[in-house]
Amino acid sequence: MARKQREDSGAQARQRVSMSEVAKAAGVSQQTVSRVANGLPNVSDDTRKRVQDAMARLGFRPNFAGRSLRSGRYRSVGLCVYDIQEFGNLSTLEGIMSAAREHDYAITMVEMPDDAPISLTRASQQMAQLPVDAMIASMSIKAVDFHSFVPSPALSTVILSMYAHPLCTTVDSDQYGCSKLVMDYLIGRGHRQIRFVAGPSFSVDSNFRQRGWLDELRLHGLDQVEPLRGDWTADSGYEAGTHLAKDPDVTAVYVANDQMALGVIAALCDAGKSVPADVSVVGVDDSLGATIPHNELTTVRFDLLERGRSAFEQAILGMEPGYTPCEIRVPGQLVERFTVADLR
């Protein structure tokens, strides 16, 4: 009997409380309850508090579906990611969330599976079924339908990618420009034999960093040596470093991320090379501060919070009439430490 009463009580608690019930409990009209629920003015502080107390006591939840029909907005932005643990995604998410809080928006996040080719069309179709006003798609790997993708007219769409898109705003850290920062720095200190250790071939970030490195070599008429390739891990950097240690000409190594750069340095040192006296090393992403004490690696730092904030702000701007898609590239900052020698 007691169990039946508890079940009945739970079922009653889960029933949606109506505005008329709140109005009766607070001694006000349904219109006043509606104004309080929607955060509208022209309600006295005492009345607002009385209504809010009744809402809390009864467990009232506003009808967001009805509110969206009236306003035309859900006040939520969808975020589509493929690997939330990938470096940069969590910091970018923090930037998106902070901007959403400032604009009084929610974030609806969907992590896409990695057992099928990445598709913007599929991601957009999934987001279109959810109560969101806009979509941010994180594309660390280029989607198979990137250039053919046509966004839904009802869903403002921003893509986190270095590739430009004809119909969508794209936002990213400047993966190409960071190579100019590194190469100008190394060349300005007298280095002419500069090798590159790339990340995986499917990585958009690594491909743009490699392109920037190669273009700077060509611009300055410097020797081009086929880059080595790793998988972002320190072990793969170590393997690349064992090959670089046998290169008699190399004076500097530009590595596509900091983890691999640590591996390169370890391999060079194990081979009897001194860093930076014999070989200089520069990484990218400045990700070692929380794990490596007395970090000495010269690297490039990206403002990932700004990357996320810019993506969110463009997503809500894209809901307005007359919005024109654009390309936003957040510049990196060279962080000079102690792994580069001056050969001048």
Write a brief caption for the model:
This protein has 344 residues and is of the alpha/beta class. It contains twelve helices and twelve strands.
Structure notes:
With 344 residues, this protein is an alpha/beta fold. It is built from twelve helices and twelve strands. It has helices at 2-14, 19-26, 30-37, 45-58, 64-71, 89-102, 120-128, 177-188, 204-219, 234-244, 258-270, 304-317, and strands at residues 76-81, 106-111, 134-138, 156-160, 169-173, 194-198, 228-229, 252-255, 280-282, 299-301, 327-330, 333-335. The strands form three sheets. It has a six-stranded parallel sheet with strand order 2-1-3-4-5-11, with helices on both faces. The protein has a four-stranded parallel sheet with strand order 7-6-8-9, sandwiched between helices. Helix 11 (258-270) links the parallel strand 8 (252-255) and strand 9 (280-282).
Percentage of residues in strands: 5-15%
Radius of gyration: 27 Å
The averaged pLDDT comes out at 90
Strand order of the largest sheet: 2-1-3-4-5-11
Distance between the termini: 89 Å
What string gives the helices and strands in order? HHHHHEHEHEEEHEHEHEHEEHEE
- The total strand number stands at 12
Largest β sheet strand count, sense and barrel closure: 6 strands, parallel
Helix vs. strand class: alpha/beta
List strands and helices in order, with pairings.
Blueprint: H1 2-14, H2 19-26, H3 30-37, H4 45-58, H5 64-71, E1 76-81, H6 89-102, E2 106-111, H7 120-128, E3 134-138, E4 156-160, E5 169-173, H8 177-188, E6 194-198, H9 204-219, E7 228-229, H10 234-244, E8 252-255, H11 258-270, E9 280-282, E10 299-301, H12 304-317, E11 327-330, E12 333-335
Parallel strand pairs: 1-2, 1-3, 3-4, 4-5, 5-11, 6-7, 6-8, 8-9
Antiparallel strand pairs: 10-12
